[in-house]
Request: fold
Amino acid sequence: MIAVLGLVIGVVAGLLFEPTVPVSLQPYLPIAVVAALDALFGGLRALLDGIFDDRVFLVSFLSNVVVAALIVFLGDQLGVGSQLSTGVVVVLGIRIFSNAAAIRRHLFKA
Amino acid sequence: MTSRHGGLPTARVPDASMSLLNDVARTPLEPAYQTVADQRAREGRRRATVRYRTMSGLLAVALGLATTSAALALRAPQPAVLAARAILEKQIGERTAAVDGLRMQNAETAQKIAALQATVLAARDSPLVEQLAADSVLSGASALTGPGLRITLSDAPDVGTVVDPDRRVQDVDLQILVNGLWAAGAEAIAVNDHRLTSMTAIRSAGSAILVDLNPLVGPYVVDAIGDASDLQTRLARVSAGQHLATLRTTYSIGVDVSAKRSLELPAASLPELRSASVPVGVPLLKGSAGAGTPTGSGSPSEAGAG
Reply:
């Protein structure tokens, strides 16, 4: 649970202090946030499935964000940035949807 | 018993070609969660060290902070964009002011040139001055005041909510009217204070009528300088008169024709110099650039084109 606690503290700190993001990182933010959302939903589903694990959650969170940013960076370098971003958003979006559906089934049994 | 299903039924997933999408949709959860859970069930729960807990806690805080700040940065209006917009607005204002200043300067200079031309020529060559005056009336280079005819065309009132383009004054109506006035012997014509020259186009862009590329709004006031009664009778004889009558009766477009004692027509925008040549036997000014060689060239037809 320490990961969840830490995450909540981080979110609250972020809301309070509103740190500025370096301009050079700006292009990677949208995809990174979507990836973080995916990890969050995955974690929540695992929690409801009873198989939540701090380490897996943190590693998946970190790797999701980093890989998403990396894909955008790579796409920008190759000139297919927007297409790759679209692909990533589609895949992550489907995952978020299915995880949300699983969470819904857990919570409402429907 | 043999059946048509002789051998083993081939286990073939009907949508095998879409395995990628199926993988994405059916296994949305990180498989690692399950792996770790299985491992834990087999080996029992391991005690996490303090160092490990601290590290993962710090990592979680950092991730939460990063994600939140990223989301906030995405939601906030981009200060760079706003700044760029402000700079652009300022630049537009400055350039517009500069253009206005230059236009004023241009008008002043043109007046000076006209005055100087008049004085220089008046002293030496009075027939040339007269010709110049006549030409400037025809070319629209000078403002004019005189008696004439004022014809006002106004859009028909809307019937219901339907906008019928036929009940609007159109560019072709103004074209026919203006051509009719020229044919009737008008000396100078202006539409909504835009002086017409031989180079002026009357066209439409969308629903707006452009005269010399300036968009106009109704009612359209066409001023023609000339003998008012003469103009009126001749206008009635040419096809433009019939066209006006049709507009009035068929489309209920307001057509108001009135004779005016004094109409003031502005000068047209300065004509471009398209062709110039030095007449034979005219001495060139000494010391000027390119003295001795006539500047400008081109066929006469180019000057008269349009």
Q: What stands out?
A: Chain A has one domain: 27-108. The two ends of chain A are 27 Å apart (CA to CA). Chain A touches chain B through 48 residues (CB under 8 Å). Chain A has a mean pLDDT of 85.
